[in-house]
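I am writing to request your help with a piece of structural work I have in hand. Here, with my thanks, is the record as I have it:
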Amino acid sequence: MNLDGLYRCLNSSTQLQATSTQNSITRKAGGRKEAEKEMQVIVDVREFMSSLPNMLHLKGMRIIPVTLEVGDYILSPLLCVERKSIQDLFSSFTSGRLYHQVESMVRYYRIPVLLIEFSQDKSFSFQSASDIGDDVTPNSIISKLSLLVLHFPRLRIIWSRSLYATAEIFASLKTNQDEPEEAKAIRVGVPSEEGIVENDVRAENYNTSAVEFLRRLPGVTDTNYRAIIDGCNSLAELAVLPMAKLAELMGGQKAARTLRDFLDAKYPTLL
């Protein structure tokens, strides 16, 4: 696959449409007056190391600092933003952290957004057009972003020139959106005592303890564990799956055999 097709996919994913604001109307004794609703943004406390929360406050938004398990900024009950500076973006790709962050946003929010924020005194680009090749390469940041969007089609990527531009973008994104609820935002991604996670937008609500156990089994990887979850109702069912079905879910005979040998291995006996 060449980058032309990937660029088209990437560009189409960055377009978030905002309609015009419609303020509520309140009746006063002397006539009618438009009452502007106060915008509020739930912000992860770690984001206060940057100046963006203060910029949002200066723009008239109410800032609610909390500890978030998923995302950096919650703009509405549906809209979650993970914010990355250029340096953080590169390091997050290298460590694999970004993949898991996006995966969590896609799992719990209907509008997951990756916001890439440039420095105002730097060029508003990753590389010059002449340096961009025709093929996907593992070391290219453009290739990595393109593949990320292909893997998570609901992910939206937004580019910002500066902190001020980010504040303007947030105000636009919040247009006609409901205000986020602090109590719900804090619980997103946090398992209950029964191991159930609230606000999972997928059809199933998984037992997170069982999922974590599954992901540690031999042959189970970040690539195939979701297919295994979708194909089995429980770990007990997984243990008795035929090899053909196991190979289909795990993406190959080698991974399936690794897991089957582990599950069928006998316990050591003590004499």
